[in-house]
Amino acid sequence: MNRDTGFPRADAENDFLRARRQQVLSRLAGWMRRAPDDVNIMLPFDEVVAALGRAGERRLGLEVIALDSIVGSVDRDREFDRRFRPTSGQVRERWQRLALAQRRGESIPPIEVYRVGDMHFVLDGHHRVSVALALGLRTIDAFVTEVLTRLSPEGVRYRGDLLVKDYRRIFLERVPLTGDARRAIMLTEPENYGELAEAVEAWGFRLMQDEGVFLDRATVARRWYEEEFVPVVRMLRQAALIETQTEAKAYMSVACERYRLIRSHRWDDDVINTIQETKRR
């Protein structure tokens, strides 16, 4: 609970000390809980956009945005933590100057942010965000530029989430699925996307050999989904081989087992029965 002294300069100094203490206590609590290292680290804008694939941008102008939607920075991610609390005393002088101005009711310029999905990344105004949060404010004025990405930013909250998104983006470049097919292929382990891409490409190569024609990536992706993935997933459901895992993960696990057991590319009841027996052992 903030206890103002009635002296703005002293209160601004206390604001900074309180923010630093909270940052240190948060790090200590994370260490005691053995929380992942990226929980208190703000998201780096460049890494997020690289993982999702930049498709363009547009200026939206001045808006009022929620402070809790600000999750990252363009280039100042070492000076503040995920909640924009100072990570050292180096920013103290400027921070306290802004806190004093805020307490005196002086005009504070809008910050500048990039918007990716529902997340905001600070381009200019890190200290202003930090002070606003420390003083308990909920919104802030910001000049917003929206960045459009090839992949949806949904599900990105921590730095560790970016690796899965990055591998998924590369997978979809190699296997350009669209619509429902694109949404159906969801994996949680980054390396699985690489393995699945290789499997689809191998399937497409065999298909081209069988038919004696060249097929582009989009055609291979569409036919693999319709002629291989959907029928296999249907059989796996009938055989109760899909439980809590995603359809794509279930497909991968039995596809690998199929190639270990037999040297053909067919799917039938005998193959499913053999896989069921293998899983029971």
TrEMBL record:
InterPro entries: ParB/Sulfiredoxin_sf. It comes from the Bacteria. This is Chromosome partitioning protein ParB.
